[in-house]
Amino acid sequence: MTLLDTVKEPGTGSSPTAPSPGRPARRIPAGVAALRWTALRLLALAVLLAAWQAVVAAGVWPRVLVPSPGDVWQAFVQASTVHDGVRGISGHLLVEHLAVSLRRIAIGTGYAALVGIPLGLLIGVVKPLAVVLEPAVTFLRTLPPLAYLSLLVIWFGIDESPKIWLLLVAALPPIAAATAAAVRGVPTDLVEAGRALGAGPAALLFSIRLPSALPEILTGVRIAVGIAYTSVVAAETINGVPGIGGMIRDAQRYNQTDVVIAGIIAIGLSGILLDALFRGLERAAVPWRGRA
User: Fold this and answer.
1) Taking the model in full, what pTM does it have?
2) What is the 3-state secondary structure (H, E, C) of the chain?
3) Measuring CA to CA, which residue among 164, 177, 146 is closest to residue 105?
4) pLDDT tens profile 209-254
5) Could you tell me which residues come within 8 angstroms of residue 80 by beta carbon, excluding any fewer than 6 positions away?
């Protein structure tokens, strides 16, 4: 029973978390609680927009540097429609820019998962390989994407290849590290029970270690998607149109601050939706997570 789930009885001195004996505590219906949280979020958004508009109205910074919420909304409309014969921004609609960026993220993260999960399994299970491979994974994990973007451009040119490689290298280390840690964290009792029942190394890996580690592996993939999304703007600074990062880069060149902010907001909103999708997939794939 949490503080939000319990309602204090009127006319009594009992606290919300300690209902009086013999009188059951009333629980807030899930729908009402969801409406309250939604109202709180909308209120916070309204306060933020009001503060933003107040700063613009006060003229603290020039309008070209800090556009108003209305200017950013007009940039959203401009980026999402055909105006004066021009499609959106840089010849593409906002949804098209987002779709291309999300496709790059999906491809890069998909390749990272195909390589990172087996790599993490090997690091977590085979000690000699862990001694050799784990430092390499840690080395890659500490590198910012911009550090090796120029090298990838030299190797693969300015087309799609360096962008996909950049997202792959950025997303692989968290997947491999999460998988290795999850496999090592499998309870010893489960492994010993499998061995007692005659399971060999392969059966132990695929029937005990991998299912037990799956929740943490999925969390690693979810984190990797977030890292890939933060890296896509850097990836698309090189011939990135169409792409949300390329759109922002072109707007920055012409001091279109409203378009830049609109692109940033689009990235954030799509990132929230993408994270919610992955959380739903986690709940569907590992429904036992968090249960005793």
Assistant:
1) 0.77
2) CCCCCEECCCCCCCECCECCCCCCCEECCHHHHHHHHHHHHHHHHHHHHHHHHHHHHHCCCCCCCCCCHHHHHHHHHHHHCEECCEECECCECHHHHHHHHHHHHHHHHHHHHHHHHHHHHHHHHCHHHHHHHHHHHHHHHHCCHHHHHHHHHHHHCCCHHHHHHHHHHHHHHHHHHHHHHHHHCCCHHHHHHHHHCCCCHHHHHHHHHHHHHHHHHHHHHHHHHHHHHHHHHHHCCCCCCCCHHHHHHHHHHCCCHHHHHHHHHHHHHHHHHHHHHHHHHHHHHCCCCCCC
3) 164
4) 778 888 888 888 989 998 888 888 878 877 778 888 888 888 888 8
5) 88, 93, 94, 95
Q: How far apart are CA 75 and CA 83, in angstroms?
A: 12
What residues are paired with 15 via a beta bridge? 18
Average pLDDT of the residues of the chain? 82
CA gap 287, 292 in Å, rounded: 12
Q: Which residues pair with 86 in a beta bridge?
A: 83
| β partners of residue 83 | 86
- Give CA angle at 234 (230, 236), nearest 5°: 110
pLDDT of residue 21: 54
Question: Does the pLDDT at position 107 exceed 90?
Answer: yes
Q: Of the candidates 233, 189, 232, 236, which has an alpha carbon nearest to the alpha carbon of residue 209?
A: 189
Residue keyed to tokens 């392969």 = 202
- Using CA atoms, how far apart are residues 14 and 8, in angstroms rounded to an integer? 7
pLDDT band at 6 (very low <50, low <70, confident <90, very high): very low
Structure tokens that stand for 117 in this block? 């999960």
Angle formed at CA 170 by CA 111 and CA 95, multiple of 5 degrees: 75
Cα–Cα distance, 71 to 73 (Å, whole number): 5
What are 220's two structure tokens? Answer: 């690693």
